[in-house]
Each structure stands twice: as structure tokens, then as C-alpha cells.
Fold this sequence. Notes:
By secondary structure, the chain is an alpha+beta fold. The chain folds into three domains: 155 residues, Beta-Lactamase; 119 residues, Beta-Lactamase (2-Layer Sandwich); 48 residues. The strands form two sheets. A six-stranded antiparallel sheet has the order 3-2-1-6-5-4, with helices on both faces. The chain has a five-stranded antiparallel sheet with strand order 8-7-11-10-9, sandwiched between helices. α2 runs antiparallel to α5, α9 packs antiparallel against α11 and α10 packs antiparallel against α11. The chain starts with a helix and ends with a helix.
Amino acid sequence: MTVIENKRTEAVHRFLNIKISKKKELDHIVRLAAEFCDTPTASITLIDQDTLYFKFKVGLNLAKAARQGTFCNAVMERGLAMIIPDTRSDDYFRNNRFVINEPHVRFYAGFPLTSRDGYILGCLCIVDQSPKSLNNYQKQMLYILSQQVVSLLEMESNFQIINKQYLKVPEFSLQSIFESSNSSHLLVNKNLEIVAFNTLFADYIKKLFSKTIMINEKVVDYIQEPYISAFLSNFHQALNGTPVQIEREIKFQDEIIWSRCTYVPARSPEGDINGVIFSGTNINKKVELEQKVSSQNQSLNNIAYVQSHELRKPVASIMGLMNLFKLDGYTATQEELLMLEKAVNELDEKIKQIVSWSA
């Protein structure tokens, strides 16, 4: 095993061995991936030297499988997303054991789970027993969900490391832990005094208040007035032992940022809660995509309604008039032609409306 593969495997085992408190969120990601892409099966799969571990899944009874010759292993080795619309038409996978035997995979899509230090831990995958293709929205959503999986796993790992070492390590060591994440982190003690923070959080405060955040100062001095009440409520809930996660809009200077905010109890090695770890992650891309998908679904619903209800009237009128013309030897009165013109114009307006929704 190469040095890189050995380090990759160590990273995978680190995530396999941590106690997951975000099971609900990770289960939701798997269900969302399956529902959004209309597949019966989805999985968050971690891969070590020899084995695939299906940690979070829907529509799959396996807990693990041998790594060799699997679709997920191919994703990991390539380091890129892999989409196979029809496995029986794929020269490489048509004779694969998962295609010939249960679960008879016909469609597969896998997106790599890449850690911040560049190691591919596994993949987020969806599977179907029928051929299918994905549109751009579905591909973008799977990519965003795969990133979210890694963020949650790394956050879990960082929090557990911090909880084990909280107030037992030098400041520079705690700082190095915080800096390994792409989120803004802040550690606050019971008295609402700042214990530690990472560079992202310091930069945010610098831009917002034009001042430098300092250890031992009160955290409320670095929170915008409209958000203090919510922060304190969530802080005290976490301080009482209940983690909090919310998604909300935050006004930052002249722009609105969507942020996923988490409040997690910080415990000493003895298990006592000594403070709260706050983390903020920019989820603008995720929210924008969800809004696009929601808008697209609304347009499809509007089109379906018009097709099933409002198109019937002008089409029925045109068909009725054409039958009259046929009975009259394909001749028509001026009144009948005006009625036909009205029905055609009405149909044209409905078609234009559908086109505007689908644009």
C-alpha cells in the first residue's frame, strides 16, 4: 500500500470510528438524493483498503461489500463523478457482478466525497434497476449534497477532537484544529467569553465591525443587534446539552448570506459541559439551487394544470368547429370563422404562457 493510500485509509477509519451525532442530517441527504433523482436506492459509502461501508442508505440492505470491482471503487479511483445511464450498454460494467446478479444495477451515479486535505473517502451514489439519465439540476444537487456530507463528517470529527482536548491543550493546538475546516468556528465558555476562533471567523468580524476579535472578550460584543437574542437562546440550549442547527439569512454589509449555524456543547474529558462551539457555513449555493428547483417544479405544476384544464376549452372549440365545417362541405360562415379565430387566439395565448414557464 502506498503512503498516500495509507493516509487515505487512515482518514477513512477516522470517520468510520467517530460517534455520529448528525445521523438525522446524513439520512436526510441520502433520502433527498434518492427522491430528487427518482431512484429507489442511495447511499453514503466510505471505502477503506478492502471494503465498502454503506454508512447511510435507503433501499439497500447491505452494510458492507468487498471493494474490488465495485462502481463506488471506480469513482474513488477516478476521483471524478461517474454516471452510467445504462450498465448493459457500458463495455466496462456490463458483466459486473452487481449487474448480472442482485441488485441488477442498470443505472448508477456516484459523486466522490473528497476531504479538505484531498483524500477521497468514498462517494455519494444513487442506483436504479432501470436505465435513466440525469438533468443538470440533478447533477448539481448531487455535487452539492456530496460536499455537504464531507462538511458534516469533518465537523463531527473536529468537534469530537475539540471536546476531547478542550481546555487541556495549548491555544495553538486548538487553533490548528479549527483551521482545518471551511466553516467559521467560535468556542465560547459558560460566561459567554471567547476562548478560541479560526481565521474565517476573525475575517468575518473584521469586515463586519472593522475591529479585531480578542480572546476573553464577551461574544455578544461581536454579534449584530438583530441576532443577539437568537444566538443567546441557541447558546443556552446547547449549554444544557442539546445541539442546535438552523439555516437562516444573515445580512452582511450590503448582501444577504444564507448560513447553516450549529451550536454544539463543548465537553471536558470528564464529560462536563464547559462551553459551546458555534459554527457557521455559507450555504448560498445550496439555497440558490433549491430555489431554482422549487421554481422549476412550480413551473412544471403550472404547465400540467394548463395542459389538463385550460387547454381543453380552446381545443374542444376548434375540434367542434372543424366538425361543423366538415358537415357543411368545408364551408363556413363569417360568425363561425370569427369563433374559430377566437379559439385559435386563446390556444395561442395558453401556448405562449407554457413557453414562458419553461424558458
